[in-house]
Amino acid sequence: MPSYTVTVATGSQWFAGTDDYIYITLVGTEGCSERTLLDKPLYNDFERGAVDSYDVTVGENLGEMELVKIEKKKYWVHDDWYCKYITVKTPSGDYVEFPCFHWLVDDKEVVLRDGRALLPKDDKTRLVKQHRHKELESRRKTYRWREWQPGIPMSIDANTHKELPRDIQFDSEKGVDFILNYSKAIENLCVNQFMHMFQSSWNDFADFERIFVRIKNTISEYVMQHWKEDFMFGYQYLNGCNPVMIQKCTKLPEKFPVTHDMVADCLEREMTLEEEIEAGNIYIADYELMEDISPNSTDPCTLQYLAAPICLLYNNSQSKILPLAIQLGQTPGKDNPIFLPSDGQYDWMLAKIWVRSSDFHIHQTVTHLLRTHLVSEVFGVAMFRQLPAVHPAYKLLLPHIRFTIAINTKAREQLICEFGIFDKANGTGGGGHVEMIQKAMRSLTFRSLCFPDAIKARGVDSPEDLPYYYYRDDGNRVWDVTKSFVWDVVCIYYDSDDTVQKDEEIQAFVKDVSSFGMQDLDCCGFPKSLKTREELTEYLTVIIFTASAHHAAVNFGQYDWCSWIPNSPPTMRKPPPRQKGVVDVKFIIQSLPDRGRSCWHLGAVWALSQFQENELFLGMYPDEHFIEKPVKEAMELFRKRLAEVSSVIKIRNEGFQEIWESFICDKTWESG
């Protein structure tokens, strides 16, 4: 009688193994096997990390293998099991791979297709077409849309991490428990004694070092030493934690009436301000989105304040970006002065601090939360709802967005919810952060997620005009390499534009993102269909780049740039000054966060900057969802090109200290 050898791989993560009964049924074009218990006498089957083989005997040859059905039944208590893959050796000696990468929970079953990536048009038999339909039907019941707050991207319908489908939960919930991670951060940073000292101000700037001495690194210590200097203020617009605010100023806005006489002493090229603008040397950062945002009022004992500043920046003759003028509100007037480098030391210092505080809020809520996390969740939910596991786009996207939904759910559960951690230290807590997201949705377009388009739209795409903008340079390199990889994969499965147009699943995916995930907002401009292979390539590149490279760029540097509190205050306890000449160092210290909020902030940026256990980086695909040789070759080429980009960056960064030291040497701009 024909015999099939079935090899089963159990995951290596914690609690992946099971003592439950595991049954298998093989389904081929000519028939199916009996439901067979996989069990070896006197052997502990399906242990964590194990690869076990079993013989399945059938009455006659099953023909070409189509499906494998796996069932788990309770032995003593329900014992979840993570199956990585199943390989079937046929009587003729052929091997057929069935990728799984699923948790089997309770008395559930999983039906697997073989590992080939197939478009809907490639399914020829009624059985596999039916399987494809049932899989999506089941997924749409499991992955449901829900509106967390009105006017923001939709999220998954789950209140807690435990309510999520098991396949997208973290292997260990502790790894993404914000409260636990903050507690660890506070302990590691040795700031426990300050945690509950709300309303208690620091004595002076040096006093902030009392919560800074435990964990320092090259960048954070450098920021602490140079945060007052104009070059450091300007440099962060290029390569700090939020390098997306700077844009070319082609005309001064009427609401920001800076004159040539105000800044003449700062201009180096014997040109007027208007001529400097025409020459492309003037840039601007406008925090208009912060206007009328409600400040945090959750603590009646501490008034907290926000500002919507505008900052004019100058690309000087040494190609340094330096602040030229700052207005702390959007409406010009006598009580909203324009602060200048020539003003008193503390007037200028406090104006820059206010800009840095507003920049922190935009970074946390818009650049980071909205434009990476929430957008990626939209793509993720739509993917699970509209793309079956056999679809090449599903296999391509899954490694990049699998855990985004889980971390976002945990954030809504603990971090950005009412009375969450965000409320404790941030000036936009208590609802202001939601207002910011709602306002930011007006400028969130699909084109703004395309990295080269976003750079060009801000007028900062020229390395000759604006050197040292490594966020742009490195981002373009990674974007190009990623897009080239995606194009290679797309061309393997789509032989023409017509194939894209006739792929009803990819079209349903794109429409679900636009019509449901983005709530059909006209201003967003998300496509509702794709017509060409180029459009599909760009769309998939946006998803991968947003969830990986761009998220890394604006997330992992938070401790570097934001741990020194005066450089990125999470809240301000005094209103913005309405006149010049009334500020002293005591007023600035009283404006900055108190001891308790400083410690919560420090714990937050430390915890958010840490890599997760078993963190995967771009180009790493340990789970083999693709089995085809051409795709594996494309992946290998992708990794090679990424390594080349990394090498270029590493060589460049080795000379970083010399670049910074050259910036420090010329301090003609420094006031006081």
UniProtKB/TrEMBL annotation:
<keyword id="KW-0408">Iron</keyword>
<keyword id="KW-0963">Cytoplasm</keyword>
<feature type="binding site">
    <location>
        <position position="373"/>
    </location>
    <ligand>
        <name>Fe cation</name>
    </ligand>
</feature>
<feature type="site" description="Essential for stabilizing binding to COTL1">
    <location>
        <position position="103"/>
    </location>
</feature>
<dbReference type="GO" id="GO:0034440">
    <property type="term" value="P:lipid oxidation"/>
</dbReference>
<dbReference type="InterPro" id="IPR042062">
    <property type="entry name" value="PLAT_LOX_verte"/>
</dbReference>
<dbReference type="GO" id="GO:0005506">
    <property type="term" value="F:iron ion binding"/>
</dbReference>
<dbReference type="InterPro" id="IPR036392">
    <property type="entry name" value="PLAT/LH2_dom_sf"/>
</dbReference>
<feature type="binding site">
    <location>
        <position position="17"/>
    </location>
    <ligand>
        <name>Ca(2+) 1</name>
    </ligand>
</feature>
<dbReference type="Pfam" id="PF00305">
    <property type="entry name" value="Lipoxygenase"/>
</dbReference>
<dbReference type="InterPro" id="IPR020833">
    <property type="entry name" value="LipOase_Fe_BS"/>
</dbReference>
<comment type="pathway">
    <text>Lipid metabolism.</text>
</comment>
<feature type="binding site">
    <location>
        <position position="80"/>
    </location>
    <ligand>
        <name>Ca(2+) 1</name>
    </ligand>
</feature>
<dbReference type="InterPro" id="IPR013819">
    <property type="entry name" value="LipOase_C"/>
</dbReference>
<feature type="domain" description="PLAT">
    <location>
        <begin position="2"/>
        <end position="118"/>
    </location>
</feature>
<keyword id="KW-0106">Calcium</keyword>
<keyword id="KW-0560">Oxidoreductase</keyword>
<keyword id="KW-0479">Metal-binding</keyword>
<feature type="domain" description="Lipoxygenase">
    <location>
        <begin position="117"/>
        <end position="672"/>
    </location>
</feature>
<dbReference type="InterPro" id="IPR001024">
    <property type="entry name" value="PLAT/LH2_dom"/>
</dbReference>
<feature type="binding site">
    <location>
        <position position="39"/>
    </location>
    <ligand>
        <name>Ca(2+) 2</name>
    </ligand>
</feature>
<comment type="similarity">
    <text>Belongs to the lipoxygenase family.</text>
</comment>
<feature type="binding site">
    <location>
        <position position="79"/>
    </location>
    <ligand>
        <name>Ca(2+) 1</name>
    </ligand>
</feature>
<keyword id="KW-0223">Dioxygenase</keyword>
<dbReference type="GO" id="GO:0016702">
    <property type="term" value="F:oxidoreductase activity, acting on single donors with incorporation of molecular oxygen, incorporation of two atoms of oxygen"/>
</dbReference>
<dbReference type="InterPro" id="IPR036226">
    <property type="entry name" value="LipOase_C_sf"/>
</dbReference>
<dbReference type="Pfam" id="PF01477">
    <property type="entry name" value="PLAT"/>
</dbReference>
<dbReference type="InterPro" id="IPR000907">
    <property type="entry name" value="LipOase"/>
</dbReference>
<dbReference type="InterPro" id="IPR001885">
    <property type="entry name" value="LipOase_mml"/>
</dbReference>
<feature type="binding site">
    <location>
        <position position="551"/>
    </location>
    <ligand>
        <name>Fe cation</name>
    </ligand>
</feature>
<dbReference type="GO" id="GO:0005737">
    <property type="term" value="C:cytoplasm"/>
</dbReference>
<feature type="binding site">
    <location>
        <position position="368"/>
    </location>
    <ligand>
        <name>Fe cation</name>
    </ligand>
</feature>
<protein>
    <submittedName>
        <fullName>Arachidonate 5-lipoxygenase</fullName>
    </submittedName>
</protein>
<keyword id="KW-0443">Lipid metabolism</keyword>
